[in-house]
Protein 1
Amino acid sequence: MNVEQLRGFVEIARLGHFTRAADGLHLAQPSLSRQIASLERELGAKLFHRAHGHITLTAAGELLMPRAKRMLADADAITSEMGELAGLQRGRVRLGATPTLCVSLVAEALNTFHAEHPGIDLEITEGGSHLLIEQLAGGNLDMALITVSDGPPTTGAALSRTPLLTEELVVVSSASQPAIAAPHGIDIDQLAQMPLIAFHESYDLRAATDLAFRSADRAPRIVVEGAEMDAVLRFVERGLGVAVVPATVLLDRPTLRSARLSSPLLTRTISLARRSDVTPTRAAAAMREVIIATGGELVERAPTTISLVKR
């Protein structure tokens, strides 16, 4: 049994297809098939059901999967740690973050980290907080920036979460249009009368704004629905409507202006999560310090809407 066999096994199970898995691993399909056949001979058990082009795990495959993921995570950690013996000249950091954080905190942190450690490979996974927690628990990430307000879901893995920042959700509009007259902020009644660009339902932001409207017995006037973060900001820039976004998104965006959402005041906490039962590599530890420092810099740039979490 070797790492290549296990990596091929996990990729086939993830994609449910030998050819696509081979493409992703940059292997010829026959080579991957031989690896799996050799692995099955060594284990004395079939790992996949193959029927009409549909591939699923056998009972033996289900048993092997969590162990294979742990072994691959250990192998990757060993590779990173050996590379780091040269003083962070080589290595890899696998960071997960929500879409809103990728365009704000993560972008700023990666710029700083890459300048300080250009030899470290950076692998970014973008997704919702619950998906990132699952990826972290499965050993696919070193750390994740999440925004789940009620804590990570139960995964069976030992996870730790460090709150970093609290930020307000603000109402953004196009800087090319007249400013919204809201010296004391916008309340939910006023927001209900504005053309709203709404995020996809999978966004935590969408859930927060929907709840605010329901709690006030109001209905939003949605003009565009189902967009991702980049598209929402572009639509707002073009003057199609307003959107409710985290305050950090507004940094370095002169084409947008914002007004505080005064009633209700909506906030979210940004936390850094990791596996507490896995010792972080030197590269991951260095990334954590850069993220924390970057969070402090964001607070200095927008102290009225972003604040550090006291620990």
Note: The first strand starts at residue 48 and ends at 51.
Protein 2
Amino acid sequence: MIFDRPAIRYHLKNNPDLALRLAPLTLSQETYEFVIKPESPLRTPMDVSILKLQRQGKVEAIAKQLLD
């Protein structure tokens, strides 16, 4: 079965009795995005905050906490 990795991780976490496991490979990687107006004053602060969280490993830590 091919599915969105974060969604299936979440499903497997909430249904541990399923006889399924995640494949150790990724066929294609896509990112999520936030949609805001180009002139929004939040644009740069959001970008900077997300980059900081990624560099500090916090994005992956949050994903592991929620999905594993």
Note: The radius of gyration is 15 Å.
Protein 3
Amino acid sequence: MAGLLTRFRSVFGSNNTRNNDSNPLPPTGDSIEVCHPSTFSILTAQYGFYSTILGNIDDQKPLSLPQKLVLTVVEKSLADQQKRIKAVPRLPSVIPRLLQSLRDPKSSATHYVQIINKDPAMSTAVLKLANSAYFNPIGKRITSIETAVVKLGIEGLRTVLSAAVMQPVIQRKSYYYTEFGHKLWTHALCCAVACEQIAKQRGLEPFKAYLLGLVHDIGKITIFSELSSQFQLNQNQEQNKPGYAAFAPLMQSTSETLSHTVAKDWSLPEEICSALAQQINLTAGKHIGPYAHILYQANLICEIYAIAKQDDTQMPAAEQALQDMALPDNLFKLLDSISVQL
């Protein structure tokens, strides 16, 4: 991958020092300039990240005519609201309640405990996350939801519960690239944590930023799942299994737009929908809002983190990117604490 990234940097690399994020506390007004770190651009990180979840892009197989038709059908289908709603899972009902609790000064963890205890699967998922190294750094085993509430507090409970209910939405299985859903879920949770940490650093609402990171790639998993289903329906011979070129280009060109559209279909808060909209065709030099800027930085550094975890020769460049964007020094350690148990 090191050679591949070198080629990417020669075309898309960030070698303009003006694009170096050097302000540790960007303004929280209406407009913040998008700046690349010195070692990665948006496209360099994006291509490298796709190679970690779909394999080496040099291994592309030419698309057959039926595969090209599948791409066209899926793209048109996801542009149609009625067909899209059938393809995208419903937003878990807990999420609007958690968002509402941010505006309710009388909000209590007791209500969420009751919700969780009514659903054994949810209880299991919450406890598993609550016992992860990130949420439970001390390591003392949490065995009940009531104990989790005491340990996590209502803010921690919000994040754990929202992750628990979103995991099956994002981590969907497929006949092709069986690890894709797991890897994308790991990225989504890492991005959510990064958003939360940056929001705290910038004085913005941590849970809203966390949820933004959690849902930002719903477009990718939707496209991937629909393509997988259609390819499998039209698959006749094993040697014609679709490769990188059958999945990545459509996700790269339309996933941000689809994530924004799904967020609107789900009636998520305007700040979240707007932040997602501002990721579309994002380039250095553009000016975006505070939450959009948090998502841009969190997603970029998490893609870089995934690249460095697969190829440790990229870690110095990743560390430099972390420094250039003035992100928390311990961010990679926090991401390690998530990844190790997922």
Note: The CA atoms of residues 264 and 273 lie 6 Å apart.
Protein 4
Amino acid sequence: MDDLDVLDGLYEAAVLPELWPQAIDLCGRKAGGIGAVMFMSRAGMIRGFASPDLKAPFEQWAATGAMDHNPRIDRAMLRPDLPVVRDQDLFTPDEIENLLYFKTMRSLGVGWSMALKQFLPDGAWTILSLERPGTQAPFGDDAVAWLTALKPHVARAAVASTRLALERLAATLGAFTALGVPAATVGPTGRMLDANPEFGRFLGQLFLDRRQRLGLADRHADTLLGAALARLNRELWSQAVGSIPVRAGEGHGALVVHVVPMRRSAHDIFAGAGALLVVSELGEGETLGAPLVQALFDLTPAEARVARMVAEGASVGEVAAALVLSDSTVRGHLKAVFRKCGVHRQSELVALLRSPLRPAAP
């Protein structure tokens, strides 16, 4: 592997964000390390990702919440005179030996780092940290010189990736605007990043732009939204209610908020988006038809048919007879419907699919 391989990897990742882990891995190995991690701060949020072999230990470390209080980042930002910093430039030998942070890093198989800082437009910044086991020698002066020479290439690739990512998000919201559909993007923690004008008319009344995360004024719906945003992690998403019903209120009719997780290339590291929120306004009418119920609440066709019949007043036995199913099968479908619609009993399901769709009393 030569320097051209490293540069090609960086510039490829600039337009294909899913390749950033592989690109920074080339940087780490070229400098004699075992990989790399990269951090980015944008809009007050710090995000990070790791090269393939460091992904598991990095996620284990990040799960402790330590990313928000990383002493390496804190001290690196206090040294504007050094574009590339090593642990020995920022900490005393005693601190490296005794600080809990370094003990934790060594327990995860890494111990020495060499980091390149880069400030980006709009107040964002990135840190590319090359990693080496604590059992090896720290990075030397030759490695620092090599990484310093790489600085303009990392900067150009990161800036390009950032701008493209933001343009893609803007284009996504623009597409929903053209359709007249309210939509917004939220970060990994649920804080709102951007919204189209259609979504904006709900802010302050239906949606609450809180410091911790975007919320809903309806308490029950807000609980479901909070649970969905907390489960944006790929392994947890299947447990979430992804389509959240909201009853009619002052200034708006009944609607459903769809939480669409960003995945793979859509889950752009530099844009910081965790999910897209899309609002379906239901308007006024009678009980929703089975196809619409299925689409709005992520139901199977069988679950949608059961939900509609129950909402129209049919008992479990009547539904079973009409659909040629056993009572236990119908109850199983109902249980799945309750979970996906965020309700706990039959009366709540009926109220959800019927009452909110009628005009509000004057």
Note: Residues 16 and 266 are 10 Å apart (CA to CA).
